[in-house]
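Dear H.,

Thanks for agreeing to be a second pair of eyes. The structure we're designing against is below in token form, covering all 272 positions.
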């Protein structure tokens, strides 16, 4: 797949073919309106339902539905996302508006909260959980971490577990800025926090408890440290989605990230 990417992505037609093969674009699928499988090509890449007459475009339901990105642009942005290139730098390199890049980055992140974030992990109803703090008044974001030998799963803890913070052995000044606490078995093993600095830039602090690592999570914490250092541009309200990205990256750290992401996006369904 990797070798064919260069050839496939020289022009828009090749890019389209590549995305169809990768399952990002869904090609023929049952009618969205009536569910009929009697669907026929309707020209210009559109599909028509023979039963109810409804037509729809190739992008429908895909990660690029309702975006103006070309197929090539999508592939290039996804590639830079995989390489952890900040959105402003990606926008500059590709001559694409920053808001388009931001928007796609965010959509890709949301796809991580949806599906399984590791082999053999059961599907979690993560979407229904929603943000655990109001956007206008950000509070600490607490995640529980579950680990099995090779994969990690992180879930927001219910607000009731805020009490957990009170028992933590961490400075008070930090408590409001906590983005992530690693609580496994209700024990605190480390945290990731924000410090707004004098220029109002936010600095991310990754701190394992007592500066030592709890052995089962050592590799994860080291990974998190490196990855967060590349994501200091993140806005605070993007952090819960980023935490899921972090987990996805960790669980796929031995794979080619671009292809792991494409695979994840092939199962993506744009919410109505
Ligand atoms: Zn129909």
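And this is the sequence the design step returned. I haven't edited it by hand at all.
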């Amino acid at each position: 797949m990797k070798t064919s990417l260069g050839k496939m992505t020289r022009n828009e037609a090749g890019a389209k073919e590549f995305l169809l093969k990768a399952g990002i674009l869904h090609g023929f699928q049952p009618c969205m309106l009536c569910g009929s499988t009697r669907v026929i090509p309707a020209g210009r890449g559109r599909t028509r339902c023979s039963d109810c007459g409804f037509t729809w475009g190739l992008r429908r339901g895909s990660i690029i539905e309702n975006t103006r990105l070309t197929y090539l642009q999508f592939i290039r942005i996804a590639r830079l996302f995989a390489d952890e290139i900040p959105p402003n730098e990606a926008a500059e390199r590709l001559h694409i508006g920053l808001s388009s890049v931001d928007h796609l980055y965010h959509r890709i992140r949301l796809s991580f909260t949806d599906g399984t974030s590791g082999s053999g992990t059961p599907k979690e109803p993560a979407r229904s959980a929603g943000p655990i703090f109001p956007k206008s008044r950000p509070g600490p974001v607490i995640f529980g971490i579950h680990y099995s030998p090779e994969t990690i799963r992180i879930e927001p803890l219910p607000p009731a577990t805020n009490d957990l913070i009170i028992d933590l052995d961490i400075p008070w000044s930090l408590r409001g800025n906590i983005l992530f606490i690693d609580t496994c078995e209700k024990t605190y093993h480390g945290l990731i926090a924000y410090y707004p600095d004098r220029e109002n830039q936010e600095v991310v602090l990754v701190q394992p408890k007592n500066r030592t690592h709890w052995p089962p999570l050592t590799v994860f914490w080291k990974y998190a440290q490196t990855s967060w250092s590349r994501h200091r541009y993140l806005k605070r309200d993007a952090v819960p989605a980023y935490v899921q990205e972090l987990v996805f990256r960790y669980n796929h750290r031995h794979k080619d990230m671009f292809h792991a992401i494409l695979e994840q996006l092939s199962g993506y369904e744009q919410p109505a």
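Two observations from my side: Residues 115-138 have pLDDT under 50 and may be disordered. The first strand starts at residue 39 and ends at 41.

Warmly,
E.
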